[in-house]
Every structure is written in structure tokens, then in C-alpha cells.
């Protein structure tokens, strides 16, 4: 199990180290009620936008299931899935040392030393072997697949076979940001638990816990920019997200005119080896901007609409770009940029070329719309 660590202390961070959960009480109750009725399905599909707490919930579900058959001391149904960080099970999972839990995600390719673009079939076959073994601690075996939509076709078919003949006392938690990309036959064999983006108050509560060093104004800006996704807000904050978003707006402010010298400079910046995080945040920001633009268009292009701008000048820019542009054009562009980013990640395309292609697609759309006028 790959663990994210704090570079200052080498301590695990992220969902595996998070004991609390804000805003998804309904999802927890659905799981608890199923467990209390002793009708636990062999697979759950936990879906929703990135960064809203899906993996945090999955770890809470996993800890609960691994403890309830192992002398967990539960007197009556609990109110939630909370487990204290001092609990031995919590600590073993945090250290990656619980023999009955497996977490699958994209791995580093041993040949290229780069993160793979997808989850491969060998990982799913290893999961099948894990499930056939006797539970190390005599209870359940639990596996979590993070980013299940990132399985390649062979991996997805291997998982389907596993779901068709699930072993006893096994629990599979599929975490997906885009469940529509999963095979329908996989989705149909899972209990679906869709999660929504957090309300602003809940998102701000999470950010206050996770980013206490940031002032409230910055946290509010990040929360609104991330649209209810604390994980996305934290990733953006770590890479100067508010500043980067303002710079993105400045670059597109004069569409269809573009400063391609600035575009090339941005691509060169992202091509540097230590700038992968900044590049991922920028792609996320670009798609986020396009989705906000599309929604503004759907609201009739009224300046600001009912949307709250994350940075100054955003509402006015939306008004100019959407006043004579059909919703279908912005949705098409959002899908095109998303597909470009996904293909680039799968085959490790040059980041600069992705940036240039994205801006050319923006310019092309704006030019077509100008011609219509």
C-alpha cells in the first residue's frame, strides 16, 4: 500500500491518517445499517467529485469491517464509523501493516520510473490471490481500489470475474471519481454510494482543520474555487492555486487573442521535472474554469449569474465569453480538454504540448464564436 508522507516528518498523511469525516453522515449510516442487518454486499462503489472525502470514508469502512470480527467491543450499533487513531487497527493500517487490507492504485512503472497512466491487470490478479488466502486475523479481507475508473480494459475484465464469484468474508470498496467510465456490469454488481460535494460551511470546517496556517480569506477563496472539494482546495493551495487561477484568467481575458509567448513559457515551466504537481493543479484549474464557464452559459450568460466569483473579475469575464456562445460549445470544449489531459497522462505526453493544444482549442472555440457574431 503506497502511503503519502509529510516530507518534514516522514509521517503518513492523507485519508489513511484522517480519523474524522465531515459532511458524509448519510453515507456512513447507509453502511452501518447494512452491517447491522448482516446483509453486507461484497462490493461497494463510492463515487463523487475528487477531494470530497471518498477515500477517507473508504478507510473508515475498512477499519470498521476489520474490527467488528476481531473483538472490536461494539455494544449495540455505533453512531458513526469513527475509530480513534490510538486503536491498534488504525495504527497498523496507518503503517501499512494490516495483513487483511489491500489498497490498489496506479503504481510506478519499474522500467520508466514514472507513474503509470492506469491500473494494470497484474494488480487485479494479485487482488484475486489475496482474496483466496485465509484471513491473517481470522475475520474479513478488505480491499480498496482508489480511482477504479483508471483500470485498463484487461484489469476491468479481471475485476469483473472476481465480482462474479466473490469469496466469502470479503469486502471490495471501489472509489471512483467518474463511475460512468466503469463497465456497466461492474457497476451493477456493487452497492452504489454516491457522495456529493460539501456545502461551503463543511468545506471550510475541513480546511480549518487541514490548513490552519492559512488565513480565513484564503481558505474561503480556495473553498469557492474548489467548489466543495477540500482535497482539491488543499492541492490548489499547495501550488498557489488562487494566484494560478488569476494568472489563467489573465491569459484568457482577451480571447480569441492569445499571448503565445506566455503560453510557451507556461509549457516550459510545467515541463520541468519538479513541476508535476503544479501542472496537475493547472489542468484541474483549466477544466474547473471551463465547467464554471459552461454553467454560467447555462444560466443565460448573466454577469455573475448566481455564481460567486473565486477571484476578482471572474464574473465579468464569464459574461463577455458567454453572452453569445452556446452551452454546447463550452461543454464540448470541457470534454475535449479533459480527454486531452487523460490521454497525455496515460502515454506520458509532453506537458508543454498539452498546454499549447489546450490554449489552441480555446482560441479555436472563441474564433468560431466570433465568426457567428
Percent strand: 5-15%
The total strand number stands at 5
Sheet with most strands: strand arrangement? 2-3-4-1-5
Q: What about the largest sheet? A: 5 strands, parallel
CATH class of the largest domain: Alpha Beta
Distance between the termini: 55 Å
At the fold tier of CATH, the topology name of the largest domain is Rossmann fold
CATH H-level superfamily of the largest domain: P-loop containing nucleotide triphosphate hydrolases
**How large is the count of helical segments?**
15
Q: What's the architecture of the largest domain, going by CATH? A: 3-Layer(aba) Sandwich
| Tally of structural domains | 2
Rg to the nearest angstrom?
Answer: 22 Å
What does this molecule look like?
- The protein has 373 residues and is an alpha/beta fold.
- The protein folds into 2 domains: 15-194, Rossmann fold (3-Layer(aba) Sandwich); 239-372.
- The protein has helices at 25-36, 54-68, 88-94, 121-132, 153-164, 184-187, 200-210, 216-226, 230-238, 241-252, 260-271, 276-298, 314-322, 327-347, 351-372, and strands at residues 43-47, 101-104, 141-146, 170-176, 191-194.
- It has a 5-stranded parallel β-sheet, sandwiched between helices.
- The radius of gyration is 22 Å and the shape is globular.
- Mean pLDDT is 85; it is low at 5-9, 70-74 and 302-307.
Amino acid at each position: 500500500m503506497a502511503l503519502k508522507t509529510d516530507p518534514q516528518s516522514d509521517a503518513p498523511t492523507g485519508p489513511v491518517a484522517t480519523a474524522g469525516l465531515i459532511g458524509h453522515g448519510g453515507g456512513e449510516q447507509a453502511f452501518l445499517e447494512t452491517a447491522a442487518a448482516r446483509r453486507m454486499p461484497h462490493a461497494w462503489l463510492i463515487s463523487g467529485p475528487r477531494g470530497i472525502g471518498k477515500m477517507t470514508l473508504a478507510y473508515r469502512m475498512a477499519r470498521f469491517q476489520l474490527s467488528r470480527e476481531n473483538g472490536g467491543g461494539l455494544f449495540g450499533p455505533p453512531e458513526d464509523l469513527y475509530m480513534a487513531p490510538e486503536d491498534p487497527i488504525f495504527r497498523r493500517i496507518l503503517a501499512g501493516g494490516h495483513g487483511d487490507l489491500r489498497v490498489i492504485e496506479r503504481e510506478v512503472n519499474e522500467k520508466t520510473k514514472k507513474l503509470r497512466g492506469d491500473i494494470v491487470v497484474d494488480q487485479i490478479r494479485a487482488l484475486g490471490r489475496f482474496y483466496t488466502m485465509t484471513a491473517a486475523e481470522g475475520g474479513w479481507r478488505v480491499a480498496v481500489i482508489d480511482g477504479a475508473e483508471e483500470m485498463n480494459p484487461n484489469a476491468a475484465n479481471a475485476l469483473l470475474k472476481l465480482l462474479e464469484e466473490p469469496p466469502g468474508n470479503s469486502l471490495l470498496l471501489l472509489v471512483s471519481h467518474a463511475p460512468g467510465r466503469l463497465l456497466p456490469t461492474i457497476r451493477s454488481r456493487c452497492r452504489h454510494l454516491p457522495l456529493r460535494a460539501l456545502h461551503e460551511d463543511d468545506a471550510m470546517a475541513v480546511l480549518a482543520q487541514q490548513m490552519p496556517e492559512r488565513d480565513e480569506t484564503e481558505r474561503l477563496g480556495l473553498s469557492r474555487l474548489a467548489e466543495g472539494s477540500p482535497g482539491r482546495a488543499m492541492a490548489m493551495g499547495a501550488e498557489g492555486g488562487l494566484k494560478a487561477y488569476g494568472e489563467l484568467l489573465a491569459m484568457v481575458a482577451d480571447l480569441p487573442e492569445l499571448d503565445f509567448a506566455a503560453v510557451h513559457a507556461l509549457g516550459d515551466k510545467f515541463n520541468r521535472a519538479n513541476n508535476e504537481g503544479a501542472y496537475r493543479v493547472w489542468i484541474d484549474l483549466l477544466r474547473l474554469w471551463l465547467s464554471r464557464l459552461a454553467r454560467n452559459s447555462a444560466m443565460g450568460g448573466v454577469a455573475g449569474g448566481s455564481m460567486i466569483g473565486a477571484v476578482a473579475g471572474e464574473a465579468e469575464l464569464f459574461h463577455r465569453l458567454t453572452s453569445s456562445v452556446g452551452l454546447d460549445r463550452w461543454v464540448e470544449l470541457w470534454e475535449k480538454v479533459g480527454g486531452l489531459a487523460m490521454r497525455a497522462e496515460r502515454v506520458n505526453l509532453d506537458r508543454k504540448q498539452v498546454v499549447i493544444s489546450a490554449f489552441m482549442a480555446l482560441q479555436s472555440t472563441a474564433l468560431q464564436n466570433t465568426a457567428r457574431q
